[in-house]
Amino acid sequence: MKTTRIEVNVGVEAPPERVYDALLNPDALRAWFAESADVSIAELRYDFWGRYTPEDPDRSHSRHPIVQLEPRQVLVFEWKLRGADTRVTLSLAEEEGGTQIRLEHDDAPARNVEEGSLADWWGLSLENGKAWVERGRTGLRVDFAIPPELELRLELDIDAPRREVFRALTDREQLERWIGEPGKMVIEPHVGGRIDFGWGDDGGPVRILSFEPDREVSYAWTYAAEPETVVTWSLTEGKRGTRLTLVHQGFVDAILDRPYRTGWTKFLNRVKHMVEAGPSWRAARTTAHDYEPVR
Question: I need a surface site. Which of 35, 83, 169, 276 has the fewest CB within 10 A?
């Protein structure tokens, strides 16, 4: 089995003791990380399971022994994942009044084409944890219990007016904060206009198909050798501010569901957290990943 290493870093505007509590408190973990959690420092157990964890494990497949624990500094646990014996290290370092979290997932199984990226999942999880610690808020989590589908649909509420959310989706500088490559991002905000996240040969959006200010934007999407698909963002009135809905349609094989579901959940959450938190928000930074599937 081919394995890889995942590394994700995120800054949290809170002291290490608050971040440490969010990592070890089962109630907090159920709020931002896993459907179910049971942590025992005395028994050196860091167990989590359920639909928001890759493979949707049940309680009997959730044993994660703690191998190192330094209060407010380091948590290391083992995780049997996709048949591989892996190890996760979460390091906390105080930095300018806040905390820098460094996640290292060693010996992680390399991603098969039908599987979501663990780097995306960890980035999503840590950004939800950041929002929980800083603001008592969280967002979507990937639901691994949903069967793969030919059309992906995700939605959430954002506590902000539609004009601010639409700006996050269509303004070049805002796009660079949550999805576009800085200095390479291109958007021509009109029907037929060019749009390019700057991902290079990996693909992404290519041209705008619809553009209705504060209501909808859609674009044609190409990625690797996949047939062209369509991504649509719709904005309506929500219970709190704006209901943002993402639909990605045109898949010819449901095998694409998990990779896109994981990635788009991360990006949809980023829009929410960025808009609600304001100019101070920063995305998690991934320095080692499993984006390329095993061939």
Answer: 83
Q: Which position has the token pair 């062209």? A: 228
The one-character DSSP state at 65 is: B
What whole-number distance in Å separates Cα of residue 235 and Cα of residue 125? 24
Indicate the SS3 state at residue 215.
coil
Question: What would the pLDDT profile of 198-209 be if each residue is shown by its tens digit?
Answer: 998 878 999 999
Q: 261 — alpha (psi -120 to 50), left (phi > 0) or beta?
A: alpha
Structural tokens at position 148: 């793969």
225 by Cβ neighbours in 10 Å (0-12 / 13-18 / 19+) ranks as exposed
Question: Phi and psi for 158 in degrees, rounded to 5?
Answer: -120, 130
87 Cβ neighbours under 8 A, 6+ residues apart? 67, 76, 77, 78, 79, 105, 106, 107
Whose structure tokens read 């999407």? 221
How many Cα atoms are found within 13 Å in the side-chain-facing hemisphere of 3?
13
The overall pTM is greater than 0.85: yes
Q: 122: closest CA among 238, 289, 252, 249?
A: 289
Query: Which one-letter amino acid corresponds to residue 252?
Result: V
DSSP state of 194: B
> What are 18-44's pLDDT values in tens digits?
999 999 999 999 999 999 999 999 999
Domains, the chain, in order of start with CATH, read 3-140 (3.30.530.20), 152-252 (3.30.530.20)
Q: DSSP letter for 293, please.
A: P
Residues contacting residue 93 through CB under 8 Å, at least 6 positions apart: 16, 73, 99, 100, 102
